[in-house]
Design goal:
Elements lengths: L18 H9 L3 E6 L36 H16 L3 E6 L9 H12 L4 E8 L6 H10 L5 E8 L3 H6 L6 H13 L3 E8 L6 H14 L3 E6 L2 E2 L3 H7 L8 H14 L5 E4 L9 E3 L6 H14 L16
Parallel strand pairs: 1-2, 2-3, 3-4, 4-5, 5-6, 6-8
Antiparallel strand pairs: 7-9
Helix pairs in contact: 3-4, 9-10
């Protein structure tokens, strides 16, 4: 694999393309993300695709952390702005429909919800989280229309570019579904944020290389990295408590992230490096609850070993 020099790109001389820096450059100031709840369901839970959902997923963990979580979109946005303003003095935000499968509803309802969020004067972009196999033409057309007003990010769960692993975690879709969804989304002017979990049971280095190559080849604009973590009342929790699943240590996960970043296109925006669920739901790993320390460790490795995002990026996947 070809080694690339430290790039001059949207993140300057940083070791990876940080979301915060990207948003500041794009929108002129700090931008927060406000999570919205609209009462969506998930076809991988209720039998339309599968039952029980992904082995790591907890419905409770998807509740927004600011209230009123069951209020109108306007009320949720205002609550979110108030929370973030106290924390970060932010004035702008991305409206993020995260809960369950946020394209699972009648097109008229989706149009109303998305438009209400996007029309808020301090919302600079719309983000919709969904499954790659649960977006029909009408939804693509709606999101494409909205993208002409403000940027629209389509957050798609891939997790790993290995169909056998996807089956083992009960994803209910394959890699081809993700690839087809990305290609179609790009036709409608949407920006993709892929969700990837590093350290899934059975995953190895070759799988991570394949996942990075998949994102590069498709021209995915952003990626949200997740460490494997265990939440109570999930299928993964049952396997973890039975001693069947290894949860990566901070050292192991940091090494995975550092290697994965080197494989990615140098301008792919990194939306997340470390994640965890609500503290009262977390079984493991404890280190994930100290997110800033984990990020610091990853960044320290990049600096100490003189590594950076895109260092091992394959030249044949470079965008024109």
């Amino acid at each position: 694999m070809t080694e690339c020099a430290l790039p001059t790109c949207s993140h300057g001389h940083a070791r990876y393309c940080r979301l915060g820096s990207h948003f500041r450059k794009r929108f002129g100031q700090r931008v927060s993300k406000i999570t919205l709840r609209a009462g969506f369901s998930c076809p991988n839970r209720d039998g339309r695709i599968g039952l029980g959902g992904c082995i790591f997923c907890s419905e409770t963990s998807l509740l927004p952390r600011q209230g009123p979580i069951f209020g109108s979109i306007a009320e949720q946005l205002e609550a979110g702005f108030l929370t973030h303003r106290h924390l970060h003095e932010t004035q702008l935000a991305v409206a993020y429909f995260q809960d369950q499968t946020a394209t699972d509803g009648p097109i008229e309802l989706l149009d109303t919800l998305y438009t209400q969020a996007m029309d808020h004067p301090r919302v600079v972009a719309l983000s919709v989280g969904t499954r790659p196999d649960w977006i029909d033409d009408a939804v693509f057309e709606l999101l494409g229309k909205l993208s002409k007003k403000k940027p629209v990010f389509l957050e798609l769960g891939l997790q790993c570019a290995n169909d056998a692993i996807l089956k083992s975690i009960n994803r209910g879709h394959g890699v081809l579904d993700f690839e087809n969804a990305v290609k179609k989304a790009h036709q409608y002017g949407l920006e993709i944020v892929a969700h990837v979990i590093l350290g899934l049971p059975g995953e190895n280095v070759a799988d991570r290389i394949a996942t990075a190559d998949c994102l590069n080849r498709l021209g995915v604009e952003g990626v949200k990295l997740h460490n494997l973590h265990v939440l109570i009342d999930t299928l993964l929790a049952d396997r973890f408590l039975a001693g069947e699943v290894h949860i990566p240590t901070l050292d192991e996960y940091s090494d995975m992230v550092v290697h994965f970043l080197q494989l990615l296109h140098p301008e792919m925006v990194i939306h997340r490096l470390v994640g965890h669920g609500p503290k009262h739901l977390m079984l493991s790993p404890e280190w994930a609850l100290h997110k800033n320390k984990a990020i610091e460790k990853i960044e320290q490795i990049l600096v100490s070993k003189n590594l950076w995002q895109g260092k091992l990026f394959c030249t044949q996947w470079r965008r024109n």
